[in-house]
């Protein structure tokens, strides 16, 4: 975290959202899931003024995931949910997690990807997320990475107004932000770093090097996420 903050200061980044621990189990058991979240809680102990924590949950262990949500979000300092590749998010097992997170206004970040050589067995695409969002039309969710292949990802979630796209993770290709603003509006786009999988500079360049208006850039770089997070931050009495 000290290194992340150092690099963030160099690039003008004020706050980070952190999740996952040091390992990368695709289908963590309850013990591993708790260990991931304990790592984030320890980081927050020292850097709560610079970071927000998201609880990492595995829908394959639904009861344990709901208890972990309560431990880390309802009764703890975290403000969001991270869902990765254990189960495709179109599965009904995610519904109780989305409902509990939605009731607390916790931010929901779902990883999505299109892999050229085929996704992992439980890895979601933006189409999966669109299906989930249709079942929970009043709950905002973030489509992590916009599926990597963002031209398909943008179109996949375009008709779901409760889906925001995340810019993090893919290469800083020219035209990504311009297409997203044209198809979705600047209000449905959220910047992210994907640290430490990508350099902060390359991810910032997607927005700072785009040709969209300055007002749109400010929404994407922070305004939209701040608005999404504000209800749970206020409920917990945190200061921005």
What is the compact description of this entry?
The chain has helices spanning 2-11, 30-47, 62-74, 95-103, 126-135, 150-157, 176-184, 200-208, 214-236; strands at 16-18, 51-57, 80-83, 107-113, 141-147, 163-166, 189-190. The chain is an alpha/beta fold.
Describe the structure.
With 240 residues, the chain is α/β, with parallel strands linked by helices. It has a single domain, classed as Alpha-Beta Barrel (TIM Barrel), CATH 3.20.20.140. Helix content is 45%, strand content 14%. The chain has 9 helices and 7 strands; from the N terminus they run H-E-H-E-H-E-H-E-H-E-H-E-H-E-H-H. The protein has helices at residues 2-11, 30-47, 62-74, 95-103, 126-135, 150-157, 176-184, 200-208, 214-236; strands at residues 16-18, 51-57, 80-83, 107-113, 141-147, 163-166, 189-190. It has a 7-stranded parallel beta sheet with strand order 1-2-3-4-5-6-7, with helices on both faces. Helix 3 links the parallel strand 2 and strand 3 (80-83). Helix 3 (62-74) runs parallel beside helix 4 and helix 6 packs parallel to helix 7 (176-184). The longest helix is centred in the C-terminal third of the chain and has 23 residues, at 214-236. The radius of gyration is 17 Å and the shape is globular.
């Amino acid at each position: 975290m000290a290194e992340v903050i150092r690099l963030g200061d160099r690039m003008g980044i004020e706050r980070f959202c952190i999740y996952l621990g040091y390992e990368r189990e695709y289908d963590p058991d309850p013990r591993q899931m708790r260990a991931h979240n304990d790592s984030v809680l320890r980081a927050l102990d020292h850097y709560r003024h610079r970071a927000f924590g998201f609880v990492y949950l595995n829908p394959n262990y639904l009861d344990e995931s709901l208890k972990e949500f309560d431990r880390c979000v309802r009764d703890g300092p975290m403000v969001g949910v991270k869902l990765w590749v254990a189960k495709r998010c179109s599965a009904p097992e995610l519904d109780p997690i989305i409902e509990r997170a939605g009731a607390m206004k916790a931010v929901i970040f779902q990883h999505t990807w299109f892999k050229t050589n085929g996704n992992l067995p439980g890895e979601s695409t933006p189409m999966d997320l669109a299906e989930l969002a249709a079942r929970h039309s009043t709950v905002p969710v973030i489509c992590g990475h916009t599926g990597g292949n963002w031209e398909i990802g943008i179109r996949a979630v375009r008709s779901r107004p409760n889906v925001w796209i995340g810019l993090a993770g893919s290469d800083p290709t020219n035209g990504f932000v311009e297409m997203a603003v044209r198809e979705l509006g600047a209000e449905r786009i959220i910047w992210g770093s994907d640290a430490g999988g990508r350099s902060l500079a390359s991810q910032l360049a997607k927005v700072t090097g785009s040709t969209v208006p300055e007002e749109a850039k400010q929404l994407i770089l922070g305004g939209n996420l701040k608005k999404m997070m504000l209800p749970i931050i206020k409920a917990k009495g945190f200061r921005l």
